[in-house]
Amino acid sequence: MHHKYVVRDGSDVWTGSTNWSDDSWSREENVIVVVHSDELAARYTEDFEQLWETESVEKSGFVEPNPIRVGDAKVRAWFSPGHGEALATRIAHRIAKAKRRIRICSPVMTSGPVLGALAEAASDGKCDVAGVVDATQMKGVFHQWELNGNSEWKMPAIRRIFANGRFTGKNSMPYGQGDVHDFMHAKVVVADDYLFTGSYNLSHSGEQNAENVLEVENPALADQLAAFVDEIHALYPAAPIP
Prior knowledge:
The protein is of the alpha+beta class. The chain has one domain (6-233): Endonuclease Chain A (Endonuclease, Chain A). The chain contains seven helices and eleven strands. β9 and β10 form a beta hairpin. α3 (84-97) runs parallel beside α4 (112-124) and α4 (112-124) crosses α6. The two termini are 30 Å apart.
């Protein structure tokens, strides 16, 4: 159960990547979104009630991601696991369609559709691709892939992305080794004028978790989040290549 959201009075939604812990506010990079919309609040309430009534992650997230208008923006609310696979495919589709820029923040990247689309974009060189990951967590992913032959095919893709794209990585404290949690924890995808942000790491397992992501089509907000990614990107060394 990986959500971090609040619905207030059926009219306001507070969501994003931030866990409610002291380290999340003071040691981690995170993104928080506040939206004033009765219609969006209804979507989040529907997801909450599925979790609350069924007491089952597997039976939640079945909320249709139909577009709604919030001010000047077109917004879709995506929930998993009900629409987890469709969400990964949607993000990959927007990455593949990008012509100007792609910006990524994600602690890890293991989603097959996303890796494929990013590797192709990095190889083509027709789009400005850059991002930041949590280097410590990605090194753990590489180790898992080495042990799991079913995921070995992802190694060339991540090499292509980190070698040809401009990716950096934060060397955070390994989980479980002390009380400090200082991960690069933001989850952001910007593809031209589209942005995706919420609780979902760009991971295969995230498709089965209880997650939420806002997809927003709005040039100004996309510019704002792209600038945020560039700011974080500049803080850290090159991402580790397996």
